[in-house]
Design brief:
The chain is mainly alpha-helical. Helix content is 61%, strand content 11%. Helix 2 crosses helix 4.
């Protein structure tokens, strides 16, 4: 077997490396913030579409994580006043979680602390190169998101 990687393997490997390096940079930048980085990521998720309400089950599916850990993170953000819940009108066991105005404000504050570093990463890039990369990454992200359960193995695929 060859030790050379395919371009596809390198792309996926590099995406992982980029994700890790950018997380590390962001953690350092917001290290003294009011919110630990993992909670910031969850808050940022809610702020992507502030009108949308989520259940813990939907969040665990979106983040591909366990329910106990997600419940703890959500509860911390609720206790801090950055998220709130609304009971379901048909099933009292279901709580709909949404971002509060103070949650949006904190997300904005933390994002503003990250902007200078993020801008510096692309300072020498041409706008067209940024647009091209954005378009291709969006296509890859969308495919992976829409095909989470479609796993290809050998010459076939399985639904897990």
């Amino acid at each position: 077997m060859s030790s050379q990687r395919t371009r596809e393997e390198e792309i996926l490997t590099w995406c992982g490396v980029i994700a890790q390096l950018s997380r590390t940079r962001a953690r350092k930048i917001i290290a003294d913030a009011k919110l630990p980085y993992p909670l910031f990521i969850l808050l940022r998720h809610f702020c992507h579409n502030p009108e949308r309400k989520w259940t813990v089950s939907q969040l665990t599916d979106a983040f591909e994580t366990g329910q106990p850990g997600m419940t703890k993170r959500v509860q911390k953000l609720i206790n801090l006043g950055y998220l709130a819940t609304t009971p379901d009108s048909h099933d009292a066991r279901i709580k709909w979680i949404h971002v509060t105005a103070s949650g949006r404000a904190l997300r904005d504050e933390l994002l503003n602390t990250l902007v200078p570093d993020q801008a510096s990463l692309f300072a020498d890039w041409k706008e067209r190169d940024i647009e091209d990369l954005h378009q291709h990454l969006f296509k890859l992200k969308t495919y992976l998101d829409e095909n989470r359960d479609r796993i290809i193995t050998g010459n076939s695929y399985s639904m897990r």
